Every structure is written in C-alpha cells, then in structure tokens.
Amino acid sequence: MSTPAALLPAFAPIDIGPLRLRNRFIKSATNEGMAKGGVPSKMLVEHHRRMAAGGAAMTTVAYCAISADGRTFEDQVTLDAPSLPHLRVLTDAVHREGAAACAQITHGGAFTFLPKLSTRYPLSASGGLNPPGVISGRLFKTAMTAADLERVADEFVAGARRARDAGFDAVEIHMGHGYLLSQFISPKYNKRRDGYGGAAAQRARYPAEVLSRVLDAVGSELAVTCKICVTEGFKGGATADDAIEVAKVLEQAGAHLLVLSGGMNVESPWAIFGSNMPAAAVETVQNPVVKLATRMMRLWEPKIPFHEMYFLEHSRRIRAAVRMPLAYLGGAKSVAGVGQAMDDGFDCVVMGRALIHDPELVNKFRDGRADVSGCTACNECVVMMYTPGGTRCVLNPPDDVELNRMPAAG
Ligand SMILES: Cc1cc2nc3c(=O)[nH]c(=O)nc-3n(C[C@H](O)[C@H](O)[C@H](O)COP(=O)(O)O)c2cc1C
Ligand code: SF4
After folding, report:
1. Which residue ranges in the chain fall short of pLDDT 70?
2. Domains of the chain, start order
C-alpha cells in the first residue's frame, strides 16, 4: 500500500535550525519513568530506539534536569557528567535507526517533590504561597534574585552543552506545563515588578534570555526548540492572547521551532491531555495528606470529553501571528489529523500517546497500514510512569521490568 496523498507533505524532510529531519513526525517528551535514582536505564534506550525504528524523525527524551535542584523527582535524568555515557548509548541507538534525538531540558522551579534542596524554599518567578505545594508539601517558594537568574541561565547552557556532548541533535527548552520558565510566563506565578514581570511579553523575557544564551552556546550545532502553552487552561492563567505575545518574543529571540502545547500540571492537567486522569492516578500517591489533596482536586476537575487535535483552534492563532517553524501538538492520532495540521501550515506534528501506544504508527501511516491510532486517551500510561517498568500503554503487553533496573551503559 502507498502513502495517503494527505500525508505526503508530512513525509518531506525539513530543516530545523542546523538539523535536517527525515520527516515531520516528532515523538513528544513523555516522562518515561526509566531513570530510577536518576540513572538512564536500558529500557529508556529501548523505548527511544523503538520510536526511531517506528518512523518518527526525532524522539524527545523527557524531562532532563539541568541541575540537581532543577529536578522535580529523584527518578529523573539529570544532565550531569555521570549521565553522559548512558545517554550516549541512547543517542547512538536512535541514530542507528536513522532518527534524531532531542533532550527536553528543564528546571522544575517550584514544581518539585525533592526531599532536599540547596535553598530553603524552591525558586520561582515570585515568592509566597506555592500552588504546587498542595501536592508536593512545599507550601512556600522564593523569588529568584538577579544572581539566581544568571546562575540558572548558565545551568541551562551547561545542560544544553552536555546534551550535545551526549550526542543529542536538539534540545527542547521546557517553557510550559508549570515548570520554572513557565512560572515566569504564567501571570498566576509571576507577580514581579521588575523588567521580568507585567504584560505577557515581559513575562516571556527571562525564558527568551535563556533561549538566547542556549542558542549562542549550541545553536549552530543543535536545533533549539521551545515547548510553550497555547493556553494554560484555567482562570487566571496565561491565555491564548498571551501565548501569541510569548511566541512573538521567542521568534524574535531566534528559536528554531516552537512546540505548541497547553495546560498546567497542577491547575489544569486535563488541559494538557484533552481528557481526564484515571481515578487510579490518585492511588499512586504515597503521602496520605497529598493523596487527600489530590482526591479533593478531582472534585473540581471539569469533565473533558477527548477529541482529536484539541489545541487546533488556539494553535492556528499562533500560526497566523508568527512566520517561524511551528509544531502542532495535542491529540494528533490519525492521518486526517496530521493532514489537517499540514494543511494549516504547521511544519511538524508532535505525538505523545499515539506513539506510546504504537511506536510503529508513523511507518504504518506511511505505508497505508493504519489511518488512526488505537490509543483511547485513557491516560493510564501517565500512572504507569511511577511503576517499576515505567511508562507504557496499558493496552499492550508489559515490558521486561528488569531492563528498567539496568543502567543503559554497561
Ligand atoms: C505518560 C506521559 C508523560 C508525560 N510527560 C511529559 C514530560 O515529561 N514533559 C512534557 O513536556 N510533557 C509530558 N507529557 C505531555 C506530552 O508531551 C503531550 O504534551 C501530551 O501527552 C499531549 O500530546 P498527545 O495528545 O500527543 O499525547 C506527558 C504525557 C504522557 C502521556
Ligand atoms: S494507556 Fe495507552 S490507550 Fe491509554 S492513553 Fe496511554 S497510550 Fe493511550
């Protein structure tokens, strides 16, 4: 069978900064739960090798912290010297399958569950009560000083350099979902009265400075992309109008590609996924107070019926406002959806759950063997992140848990 005509543009190569991708399909960063104690496992390598073998042009390793304090969990990859040999095994495996590898680089800011930090309170755009503290137990956060801004920007640069040294072809700077740079963009978190607060363009100033620094350091060798929210999806959060201003600032700063996501981990997780978390998610929480808080949060959660391409309307507005390359994300799971994104002028399509469910989907689309993913958007894979085997689709047979206990290198 041959490639459906609607998909021919999606199988054309594209240049993202200095990087040529073989097609327009990118595997989204989805926390793999495959770095227990922070050590990238053989399962992490196999997970991304499968994505590459399945046809995606680039696979994104989720949630690589730029520093120890920048972690949200202890079981998270940190871009430090000990991680490099493990990550090199991963990038080599992805390259052997003909795909590119991207490291999502992030600092959690106030969204952290670490038992210990080097500061008394977690850093954020502004100090005071910490909304994620409802589930993390860290009820206060502290505003970053000028010295903090400088140091953390340096850490983003160091993280990007380490990603390059580990063989990555791209870095995705995480500016969405409620992590540190997103805390600058969000009016709920950013109450600063200096040049880093105020209207959306000013709130995007620090993320744009980090981007510029990363571009200066590695932008001639790596694609440098940014993941942003097209809407934060809750009252008092950044709106679609704000997102347009943020996109313009990042375009001006020279980002090679924007990945258009939405929603916040704490205030509006359903907006990230376009569907609700399964009830089982609550049971994975160990701390009884946190478990109670999570149960209460479910009471005010709106019921969201999943529909494909759920960020399309908001993302189209960004498409109309900037000229730079943009990647559509959010419920892309069919030939029709991908074709629509191409017709609408998006340069790439980023897929998370559809590829967790079936890493072969891109090849199946290409060969006319499938026209829609079997993913039901149940979000059970999000719960699996915290299990010994790591993130997987519950509709598939389990992976070998032992592989997730073995360090990638060695
Ligand atoms: C299991 C799982 C883990 C995720 N972890 C991350 C993450 O670490 N970083 C991130 O930016 N997004 C994360 N996401 C969100 C996805 O990248 C993506 O934005 C979301 O799933 C919507 O895309 P989709 O409809 O193609 O799945 C995660 C999603 C899932 C399903
Ligand atoms: S568990 Fe499987 S079917 Fe459910 S959302 Fe995740 S990938 Fe899709």
Report:
1. 280-294
2. 5-404 (3.20.20.70)
